[in-house]
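Last lecture ended with a question: if I hand you only a sequence, what can you say about the shape of the protein? Today we answer it with a concrete record. The protein is Sec23/Sec24 trunk domain-containing protein. Below, first the input exactly as provided, then the predicted structure, then a couple of comments.
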Amino acid sequence: MAVRATVSRFPIDADAQEASGLPWGLTVTPFAAKDENGIGPAYGSNGHLLPRCENCYAYFSTYGQLDQWAWNCALCGTLNGLTSDVIARYSNPHSIPEMSSSFIDLELPLEEEMTQAHPVYVAAIDLSSSEEFLELTKSALLAALEALSPGSLFGLATFSHKIGLYDVQGPIPVVKNVFIPPDVESSLSLELEDVMPLLQFLAPVETCKDRIAAALETLRPITSWERSSGAAQGLDSVLMGGRGFGTALEALFNYLGSEFGNTFALARVFAFLSGPPDYGRGQLDTSRYGEQYASKRVDADRALLPEQTPFYKDIATIAVQSGVCVDVFAVTNEYTDLASLKFLSIESGGSLFLYSSTDDSTLPQDMFRMLNRPYAFNCVLRLRTSTEFNPGNSFGHFFPDPQYENLQHIISCDSYATYAYDFDFADNTGFSRHSGEQPVVQIAFQYTVIVPPEGVSNSDMSSSSRGKHTLQRRLRIRTMQFGTALNINEIYDSVDHEVVLSLLVHKVIVASLADGVREGRALLHDWLVILTAQYNDAFNLVQYKNGKKSMSSQIDVSFSQCPQLQALPRLVFALLRNPLLRFHEEGVHPDYRIYLQCLFSVLDPGSLHCGIYPALMSYSTPDKEAYPRHSLSRAALITSGSPIFFLDAYTTLIVFYSSIVDPSVPFPPPQDSLLRKTINKVKQERSITPKLMFIRAGQDDATAFESYLIEEQDVDGSGFASTMGFVSFLEDISRSVAEYMK
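The predicted structure:
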């Protein structure tokens, strides 16, 4: 569980927090195997015996005082009695995890009937598509079958103007279809359980893998002739559409929900989509993308971000209640309205992937990677604080508990998934300046994992041992104590700019969704102006003449006296240049913007930094690094004198050979070179499969590489290179600060 705060020394009170101009909060990656310093938890059992505070329900930790019969809560100070069982347990403190570490992971007892439940995976495939789409989907699912954990059950379903359910447990695959009513209101005439019993639909992967592969080979796109013949069988008219995505998923969630907690503890639905749902329940009107917003005086950046129907948010609730996590794989370059569809994955703990074409799609690699890494499911995340302050907003892909505040449900959580919180003071008092009590944060994460048989790895398991996997319920707790800053200098000296960026990104996404991209940009710009003004004020950089502030002195917009803040203007500039906040008229596709919102909302601070302001390093040769970091400008490239550059933009990796590379240097870099090893390490550690490009100046089109050199681009729009860019942005901030401080 990695936890990083925006400031390691908390502001002493609300006035100090406001005066700093900084967001106050933290990010948490709950299922990360180690903390932010690379240290793992103390493992143990009997988590149900861990004492809890009678007042605030926090767990016992090393920060609370313990005597023979009682303990003091580290968060609220309440004195709690110890039961006889706990007293006996604590008589040998050296063997008890919570006595030796503030970061613990304890096993919890699980109901007997739940220990053998199977993981369930269902593929829902769009047949209103092309041959190329289906070939890509088949490749992805064949990769998935290799990565599925032993003991898994797999179901294959298709959708178009009808839903197809495949039975692959017999000698040959059999498909049973049920037609989808074309209108928005009507549900299926039959429950899917009546079309095919669920346990007939869900096949054990070990024994049926070949037949699942054979069933995949039978998939063909639905032709217009088939849709017309469907119409002849009782539907009113010849169907122009035929992608009944909403009806199909709603029916699948209800189908699977009947066995939640019995046959399975987690079901994961892979939804493969080749275009917008245009048939049955949840059909979307994609004509709104083609409307001429300018002529109607409508802000397109505001109009295209909200969902146009609550249908997908509503069925996401059904998915959560049914124990279903949904991953949406959209392979399309047409407007699909991901703004409406995203709730399926966001609220169920799944992922949203967008690929603009089948040609260079990394879908099979992404799918294998996603399923081959450890994950937890049926998770509950709770953050508690000491009494002086409270959690404010929470950000991330979770489902908030309808009853309890600050309690989040996460259906599926991998080791990359990151969540963010900001803090508010409980009152005007703040933290004590004189007592020894310091701010405390406690994060509790309860989760279930699939545990293989002891001493047997996934790769060498025989089929006889594979069914013997068990479920384990665990409780991971991290209790952290933070210092308080006695003045603003101490706050600024303790800033973590990557976590500040994380909270800013979450806040501008929320602002964009509520009020449009323009408002999100304004919020970000104003935040930097206020921070710069507060910093200049705190360091007395603005001179007073005759009792009035004189702007004759140069306003420091580069935070020259505070190294921890110096990265922030560049990060804000880069965020304003990112497609997340670029304008519709600049050619940013609304679905790509939504995809970035979903991706950036789950990244840890280091990865998000890379996605917003890519890392650019240079090499003298493929085997020798020259400089570890350059600013994203042509000037930096020219002045470095380095011949080879490697750019890491999180979703894209680019190796660029400049015009000064010696002709004898091999292109692309050899597999055994240092540069290649660096690339492979980056790819291996990433949550998605980045696209890798090799470009030679003068021979290949270098536009992809040059588009990332943002510091000479105009922040407001054209994107064309100029001599201004970042420099003119700082001048604008300086003018705005002067205006603000008048």
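Comments.
1. The chain has 25 helices and 30 strands.
2. The longest strand covers residues 440-451.
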